[in-house]
Amino acid sequence: MAPGPIIVLTGTPGTGKTSTAQLLASSSSSSSLSPPLPLQHINVGELIRDKALHDGWDEEWQSWDVNEDKVLDELERIIDDRPDGEGLILDWHTCDVYPERWPDLVVVLRCDHALLWERLEKRNYPMNKIQENNESEIMQVVLDEAQASYPAEIVVELKSETPEDMERNVERILEWAKVWREQRAREAEEEG
Ligand SMILES: Nc1ncnc2c1ncn2[C@@H]1O[C@H](COP(=O)(O)OP(=O)(O)OP(=O)(O)O)[C@@H](O)[C@H]1O
What we know:
Elements: E1 6-10, H1 17-30, E2 39-43, H2 44-50, E3 54-58, E4 63-66, H3 68-81, E5 87-91, E6 105-110, H4 113-122, H5 127-138, H6 141-149, E7 155-159, H7 163-191
Parallel strand pairs: 1-5, 1-6, 2-5, 6-7
Antiparallel strand pairs: 3-4
């Protein structure tokens, strides 16, 4: 069986990547598709912390000083070693570090900036980080980054402000994955 799709799920911190990726992964494994199309959730931020893919802790920004080469090597291992038929969801607040050939779909989650401010405040983010992320969301930095890094036809922007938005987004991505697999199977058949 061919490998499943690589879905880059990105957006400003707090837009809902991890919540969406968790729902997407669990919905994909419980869906009635035959054969199944499981999507494994990779929380890249957690991977960086757990596997020390960084060069230390930045006190001012309260974040890891990410070592991109180590991150890419680790992700490449995960991509190569995944079981046949399994897709991946790469959940991270940045997306331009991946090689262009990796993603089959790039989803950029968007959220009203006032709502984002509240979400980050609830998480006790330091003020400089709340402000930076808020400005970044207003200026659509992550969307611009995605559009500059990947072909327009694979980049989609989805609103993620309510639980209903999240459910709708998960349904849309699952539907996309199903069609993506059907197209791949047709192409493989044509190639003989
Ligand atoms: N669509 C949504 N509707 C309502 N609440 C949401 C939605 N998406 C996320 N949230 C809430 O916003 C907060 C941040 O969500 P989440 O951790 O998924 O964001 P994130 O983009 O992964 O953040 P980070 O990049 O910092 O990991 C959580 O409390 C979550 O429950």
